[in-house]
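Side project, low priority. Logging it here so it doesn't get lost.
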Amino acid sequence: MTESGPTTVRRLEIWQEGMALVEAVYRVSASWPRREVYGLTSQARRAAVSIPTNIAEGVGRGSKPEAARFARIALASADELHTLLELSSRLDFSPPDALADVFPVLDRLTRRLSRFIQYQETSSS
């Protein structure tokens, strides 16, 4: 990776998708019970925010190994978020149709993060 910085990160589709996912999670979690504001709501929002922020930090460090390392952290946050959203469904905090729009985005982003990591690890520095 030779170029880095905010402009480079904003061009990355995985970062853009991560940002859109954050917005969707904030919208979905806005209707969750008030008693969960410091519990499940906070945890889900932090996991969602962690995805694009870790992508940005990794790319911003300017090396492929660092981009891969931080993308792995983003991927772990995506897995965490999937679990938290599933919990919100099981606890009837989220109507099924609300999550029907979020899960496919999250699944696609998870696959793309995996490919991004693989690319960073296998392409020449």
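Brief comment: Residues 75 and 113 are 6 Å apart (CA to CA).
Revisit when time allows.
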